[in-house]
Amino acid sequence: MIIFELAAAVLGVAAVVYLVFALIKPERF
Protein backbone atom coordinates (compact mmCIF):
# COMPACT_ATOMS: atom_id res chain seq x y z
CA MET A 1 0.00 0.00 0.00
CA ILE A 2 1.45 3.36 -1.01
CA ILE A 3 -0.20 5.16 1.92
CA PHE A 4 1.40 2.77 4.41
CA GLU A 5 4.83 3.21 2.83
CA LEU A 6 4.43 6.99 2.90
CA ALA A 7 3.44 6.92 6.57
CA ALA A 8 6.43 4.70 7.39
CA ALA A 9 8.76 7.10 5.56
CA VAL A 10 7.36 10.09 7.46
CA LEU A 11 7.76 8.30 10.79
CA GLY A 12 11.32 7.32 9.89
CA VAL A 13 12.28 10.89 9.05
CA ALA A 14 10.61 12.18 12.22
CA ALA A 15 12.52 9.62 14.31
CA VAL A 16 15.86 10.67 12.77
CA VAL A 17 15.11 14.36 13.36
CA TYR A 18 14.13 13.61 16.98
CA LEU A 19 17.38 11.72 17.57
CA VAL A 20 19.44 14.54 16.06
CA PHE A 21 17.72 17.11 18.30
CA ALA A 22 18.25 14.85 21.33
CA LEU A 23 21.99 14.68 20.53
CA ILE A 24 22.36 18.42 19.86
CA LYS A 25 20.26 19.69 22.78
CA PRO A 26 20.28 16.93 25.45
CA GLU A 27 19.36 19.43 28.18
CA ARG A 28 15.85 19.72 26.73
CA PHE A 29 15.12 15.98 27.08
From TrEMBL:
Pfam family, one: Potass_KdpF
Keywords: Membrane, Transmembrane, Transmembrane helix
GO cellular component terms, A-Z: plasma membrane
Protein origin, superkingdom: Bacteria
Record InterPro entries: KdpF
Membrane-spanning intervals of the chain: 6-24
Any one GO MF annotation of this record: P-type potassium transmembrane transporter activity
Record protein name field: K(+)-transporting ATPase subunit F
